Sequence to fold (320 residues):
Amino acid sequence: MKTMFLAACLALYATTLAAMDKGEEAPNFKFEASWNTLPGAKQLTDYRGRIVFLEIWKIH
Amino acid sequence: MRFLPHLVEVNEKYRDKGVEIIMATDVDKAPELEKFIADKKLKLGVARVVDVYKLVKAQGYPTSYGIDVDGNCIWRGHPQGLNDALVDGWLKDLRAPKIPRKLSDALGAAVSAYDNGQYGGALNALEKPLKHKDEKVKADAQYIADLLNGRLEMNKAAAKIYRDSGELEKLVALLEGDAKDFGGIDYAKDCASEAKKTKASKAYKQCVEAREKLEKLKPGLKDMKPADAAKALNKLAKEFADTPAGKQAAELAKEYEEKK
Fold:
């Protein structure tokens, strides 16, 4: 019961998270693996000085 | 992914102008991604990033963001919303990134040079502060030096990739950019010297000629019979086999051969 309650709270919390919006600093993240990315770049901050179009996606 | 051709188009048009696409996923396994990229012959930047969905607080797939030179979000929406007017607007703010924290006033000259994209000048202005008796000034100077050296090392790594892969036009553009941005230090002189030497080489001239010929050929391909298009592309690929455009022509020729 306690687990279900916690899961419900987490689900509710997840839906109320505000999406990253204009003016907010994008969190840095490291590439676990990458293809065709900027040569030498291993993380998002390596793109400072460039405009980035970041797409969050999945294959299916 | 019906929006994929749209992103490929934007990538081709804007990548050399300072806009980079990163398709980040935390769901797909590396072998699946590799297969997908190979099957689609994808030239877009793709990254596998742990928890990226949560990190950027995405709300469904796909979610897209525009991020400026300082790493701040300037747009959020669906990838179909990406268009030339939007990207052209972003490009108006293409500049050197700002230092993301307040630093000691003693570093005024270095910070000013950095903010103006004069990285060589900034490194020179850091020489004295790096030996300063005040530990705060010294630490702040080291912070800027690390930012600049990180950028320099990344560009050196990129130059090596371009050199090794024969992408000589990209190599020259990078070297000429660094010769300007890092003016005042030996690295800039090395870049200028290599750029000049590369531009004078036969290999570079072939890269330029092949690219120009491919650019001229491309618009008419759709009106040609697949067999004729493949023939024209194969001729170019054979003549300029070692150039990026020659390799691209060979790939395109295969596509037209499949349509025969």
Remarks:
- The CA atoms of residues 32 and 38 of chain B lie 10 Å apart.
- Strands of chain B lie at 19-25, 45-48, 63-67, 73-77.
